[in-house]
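Preliminary data (for renewal application), 2'-deoxyguanosine-5'-diphosphate complex.
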Amino acid sequence: MNKEEALKIVKPQLTDHRYVHTLGVLETSLVLAEKYGADPKKTELAAIFHDYAKFRPKEEMRQIVKDERLPENLLYYGTELLHAPVGAYLVKKEAGIDDEEVLGAIYYHTTGNVNMSILEKVIFLADYIEPNRHFPGVEEVREMALLDLEKACLMAVRNTIQFLIRQNQKIYPLSIATYNGLMDEVN
Ligand code: DGI
Ligand code: FE
Ligand code: FE
Ligand code: FE
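Predicted structure:
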């Protein structure tokens, strides 16, 4: 599938704001892919489709977790986590994307994972630092992204966990595992 076809499928799934974010992730991820050596075509597809399920009804996403035997613990950490694994499932089913590396990058783009591939790290990081993101600390992560992929991913997951704790939200266990795994990777 080429870029224009992919964008045409994704656009009606998203708000204008989220579509602009997706274009930002696309641009940033291709820069990171070039620098750190991820396949540009896989990067393009993963970036374009990463938030495909963002606006699906929560109940539909919860039902897919149950029906498709996705990890049950996804149901107990708020609803924001669901769009990544459910998105990977729907992108395969509805858009016919069957490249497992691309689907993995979509699946793990919110929580990260232990031992992420370069492509998974590129999408995880691009989602955090794309030009339309404005949260505190993002500029430091942007600077690190030019120097060290793993250190930049670590800063992103650390910031996210700190943010969630300040918001009195639960931390998904895989987010903690991502943090711990990257701590080992950077040393
Ligand atoms: O979909 P985006 O907004 O582009 O970004 P994202 O897929 O990284 O999702 C970010 C959201 O996910 C944000 O609202 C925080 C939430 N989130 C990320 N990690 C965790 C989490 N929520 C909980 N409860 N626990 C987590 O570990
Ligand atoms: Fe997302
Ligand atoms: Fe993210
Ligand atoms: Fe996103």
